[in-house]
Amino acid sequence: MMPDPDRAVAVAMELRWSDQDALGHVNNARIITLMEEARIRWMRGGESNKRFGFGTVVASLQVDYLRPLHYGPDFLIRLGTVRIGTKSFTVRLVGMQHGVKVFDGTTVMVPLAEDGVSSRALDQDERSWLEDSVVSAKA
User: Fold this and answer.
1) Number of independent structural domains in the chain
2) Prediction pTM value
3) Burial of 103 (0-12, 13-18, 19+ CB in 10 A)
4) What residues pair up with 78 in beta bridges, in sequence order?
């Protein structure tokens, strides 16, 4: 499984005026919410799928804020898989505005079992789908 930066999915995001903080930058907590929204859109894929039927939970989240993100129409998040384990996987999310990285983060996700509480192993369909979106981890 070779990382391929071209496998990253680009999700266009809309910013709201209220996303800004007192300095005129998008608030750091709002960036976490935008990451969540992009990840959910990517995982659902706009298609009828059976992946993660009982949901997933965030086990870990890490973000490096590289530059201020400003209110405006030109903003997207590029994302893909950087690690696939037995009972978890890691998604890398890179925020881009005007062609420049504004943040770079990872989220470790754990699929839930039927009880909605316990973790479970990734099934083969989920694993194959994740393998199709492997991208490079941070250098």
Assistant:
1) 1
2) 0.89
3) buried
4) 10, 94
Provide the CA 115 distance to its chain's centre, in angstroms.
25
Is 136 contained in some domain?
A: no
> Model confidence over 69-118: pLDDT tens digits?
998 767 999 999 999 999 999 999 999 999 999 999 999 999 999 999 99
Residue ranges of E strands in 6-138: 9-12, 56-65, 76-84, 89-97, 100-111
Tokens of 116: 């909605």
Distance CA 37, CA 92 (A): 14
Closest CA to 109 of 45, 17, 42, 28: 42
For residues 78 and 94, give the distance between their C-alpha atoms in angstroms, rounded to a whole number. 5
Range of the domain at 38: 7-131
Enumerate residues 6+ apart whose C-beta is below 8 A from 86: 121, 122
CATH for 118: 3.10.129.10
